[in-house]
Write a structure and sequence with these properties.
7 strands; seven-stranded mixed β-sheet; Rossmann fold; 203 residues
Length: 203
């Protein structure tokens, strides 16, 4: 490690991505991968919890103190992170049960020095078959972010899956969609860096 100048970060901010569905390679998961690549390009370290991982999380039961390896891995990563990106498909006008259950696990952060997602940027990504579900699901994700004491980014991404969005390699072929996925990632990284540096976690 090089000797930093005063105030210069010595580690990269950690951005955690939570996204996907029970279907491997879902549009939501592909969108998140595009966004996390942009976060890495902006200087962040990233960690993705995708659909196959999320399906191994048991339904959150606060009265049961037992936690499996996946629950501990998710909560520990979010505890360490400087920012978070969450992607959900729009199911019947709201967040999918899979994503909501993952976010419910964060109740285990309630007694931390930084409880829940206090002071952390929260980027929202929604995919849905139609704009109505996109809009209502984005509102739901933002409401969850506020409840967890996070700071939702100015941009929330909505992707309408009625038209093809990704190629076989996972690249976003919709220019506006790709630009928004990259922008929300940059906003999370920028806020996370400023906030963590101010708090002394990156210096």
């Amino acid at each position: 490690m090089t000797n930093p100048r005063a105030g210069e970060p010595t580690r990269r901010p950690l951005i955690v991505g939570i996204a996907g569905s029970t279907r491997p390679g879902s549009s939501t998961e592909r969108a998140m991968r595009v966004s996390l690549l942009a976060a890495e390009a902006a200087g962040a370290e990233t960690l993705l919890f995708d659909g196959p991982f999320l399906t191994r999380l048991p339904i959150y039961a606060p009265e049961n103190p037992a936690r499996n390896d996946e629950q501990r891995a998710l909560v520990d990563a979010v505890r360490r992170c400087d920012g978070i990106l969450v992607g959900s498909p729009g199911y019947h006008g709201s967040v999918s049960g899979l994503i909501k259950n993952a976010l419910d696990q964060l109740e285990d952060l309630n007694r931390d020095e930084r409880p829940y997602l206090d002071g952390r940027a929260f980027g929202c990504i929604v995919t849905a078959y139609g704009w109505q579900a996109c809009g209502t699901t984005l509102v739901a994700l933002r409401s969850i972010a506020h409840a967890l004491r996070a700071w939702p980014t100015p941009l929330g991404v909505m992707l309408n899956t009625t038209t093809p969005l990704f190629d076989d390699q996972g690249a976003c072929v919709d220019a506006k969609g790709a630009a928004q996925l990259e922008m929300v990632a940059r906003q999370v990284v920028e806020f996370a860096t400023l906030r963590a540096t101010h708090a002394g976690r990156l210096v």
